[in-house]
Amino acid sequence: MPIYSMTGFARAQARIPLGEQDQLSYTLTVKSVNHRFLDVQLRLPPGLDALEMELRKVLKDKLVRGHVDLTLSVDRATQKTAGYNREFVAGYLAAFDAASREHGLKCEPDLNAVFRLPGALQAESRDDGDLAVLAESALEQIGPLLEELKTMRAREGEALAAILQGTLDRLGEATDCVAKLRPEIEQRYQERLTQRLLAATGPEFNRQRLLEEVAVLVERSDIAEELTRMTTHIGHFRELLAGGGEVGKKLDFLLQEMNREANTLLSKTGGVGGKGTRVTELGLAMKAEIEKAREQIQNLE
Questions:
Q1: Which of 13, 83, 123, 212 is most enclosed, with most CB atoms within 10 A?
Q2: Is residue 143 part of a domain?
Q3: Would you call 100 exposed, middle or buried from its count of C-beta atoms within 10 A (0-12, 13-18, 19+)?
Q4: Do 101 and 215 lie in a common domain?
């Protein structure tokens, strides 16, 4: 099963014969971008409320997440005779006249400015029969249109998966490098801790007891668990990518866990010195890769 990006676009154009000399051409477009949930916005000509309900149902059945804009626009060449909204224009002119007289102004309204107002110009409404034919045709087009959208989203998802696989490779390499440095880091940490405790307690302190306490502290500061969990998370991440489907939220949670392991690794090895500096560099590189991956998966379904 593929994984899907939430970014996609598809368009369908159709022409409906309505009579010997009449036809209706329209364009149906759908585009989607990332969103936490499924957010559907429809833009349809007036009089198609029933179609809007049907389209919403189809979109919710076919898509899982994303901000989806669907627009149905009738081509201007096939719209009926253009006119203007008489009630709207008359109200504007009456308000203009009243305001002029109230403030003692002598000026005339600009019809060009009036007609640029939203809702001033409009096409004559087609009859219910034409709208019914338009709705039926649009419902026939929506299935193939969404398949085209999903195909594009699958291609985008495949590209994102390839990027994420590269990120996992680099995280795995960094984890392996830290694992190789771990014995030296532990030894360095033990030596440093022993020196500090001896300096603080003096030569009369029980040296055997001191070494036992140091061993306990070193064990608590061991990064083996963090490395093991990081490796496990990387493997789980790969499994989810390979399985496909709706993985965006699961991958986001995994990356949060991986970031937590990287932070713990850095806190345990900070200030050790020597090869510890290299571990710090690797830990910061891990965090950078994880952050890049989190940006990428925000666009996965």
A1: 123
A2: no
A3: middle
A4: no
Residue carrying structure tokens 């991986």? 258
Q: How far apart are CA 222 and CA 186, in angstroms?
A: 7
What distance in Å separates the CA atoms of residue 243 and residue 14, rounded to the nearest whole number?
Answer: 37
> 108: domain range?
82-115
Structure tokens at 220: 């608590």
The count of other CB atoms within 10 Å of the CB of residue 141 is: 16
- In this structure, the answer to whether residues 196 and 111 fall within a common structural domain is no
Q: How many domains does the chain have?
A: 2
Could you report the per-residue pLDDT of 141-188, keeping only the tens digit for each? 999 999 999 999 999 999 999 999 999 999 999 999 999 988 887 777
The C-alpha atoms of residue 256 and residue 253 are separated, in whole angstroms, by: 5
Q: Is residue 105 part of a domain?
A: yes
101: exposed, middle or buried (Cβ count in 10 Å: 0-12, 13-18, 19+):
exposed
**Statement to judge: residues 105 and 200 lie in one domain:** no
Residues 95 and 181 in one domain: no
Residue 246 lies in a domain: yes
C-alpha Rg value of the chain to the nearest Å: 33
Which of 212, 223, 289, 221 is closest to 258 using CA atoms?
Answer: 289
Residue type, 181: L
- CA distance from start to end of the chain: 13
- Confidence check: pLDDT of 119 > 80: no
Tokens representing 30 are 């759908």
| Digit-coded pLDDT (tens) for 217-229 | 555 567 888 899 9
